[in-house]
Specification:
- By secondary structure, the protein is α+β, with helices and mostly antiparallel strands.
- It is about 45% helix and about 15% strand.
- It has six helices and six strands, in the order βααβαααββαββ.
- Strands 3-4-6-5 form a four-stranded antiparallel sheet, covered by helices on one side. A two-stranded antiparallel ribbon has the order 1-2.
- A hairpin with a 5-residue loop joins strand 3 and strand 4.
- Helix 1 crosses helix 4 and helix 4 crosses helix 6.
- The chain is globular and about 50 Å long.
């Protein structure tokens, strides 16, 4: 049985909000207009499920319109999404104000936002590195993986780490994110 792959509406809403905040209301309206005829998108409800393919179209359109098609630039969208989500409805995930604690709980957040797939998080012994392995989703989009990389880095920045590096390695069955950071800034 082929189960449709979906994302929560809050993930899509934050992308429109990103465009509004970074590029202005007219840019957001133009982006919304491109998808206005999509009955599977509007009305956009935060807690409803939407096709992953539609979500991917939206983030690819953002890369095309605002970043000359450079998917790597979508890390900025992910960092914005982290701040948006983790300072509002999902703030409980960062309540401890500890990045390692957040990373250990991120699989649960992932399952809240994506209908399929899971992840394994392995924190390094030094407490300043981790490996996040995503697996089990029906498809892995390069655009979404860059958004995810930005989300992981943005979450760390929100928690006081501003020297985070993230190396992304996409494979056939999933993706790996190697994160490294220094000590927290006070």
């Amino acid at each position: 049985m082929n189960v449709p792959y979906k994302v929560k509406g809050s993930s899509i809403r934050s992308k429109f909000k990103f465009v509004h905040d970074r590029f202005g209301a007219d840019a957001e309206n133009e982006l919304r207009e491109e998808f206005a005829g999509r009955r599977d998108l509007f009305p956009l409800l935060d807690s409803s499920w939407y096709p992953f393919s539609l979500y991917n179209e939206i983030i690819c359109k953002i890369a095309e319109r605002f970043y000359n098609g450079k998917l790597e630039a979508l890390k900025e969208v992910g960092a914005f999404s982290a701040e948006e989500a983790l300072t509002t409805v999902y703030r409980a995930y960062v309540a401890s104000k500890n990045y390692v604690s957040f990373l250990r709980r991120i699989e649960r957040l992932h399952q809240t936002l994506y209908s399929a797939g899971s992840m394994t998080v392995t924190v390094g012994r030094d407490g300043t590195s981790t490996l996040i392995e995503q697996h089990g989703a029906p498809v892995y989009s390069e655009a979404d993986l860059h958004v995810a990389a930005g989300f992981y880095v943005g979450a760390g920045q929100l928690l006081g780490h501003h020297d985070i590096s993230c190396h992304l390695d996409k494979g056939k069955a999933g993706a790996n994110f190697e994160l490294r950071w220094g000590r927290r800034e006070n």
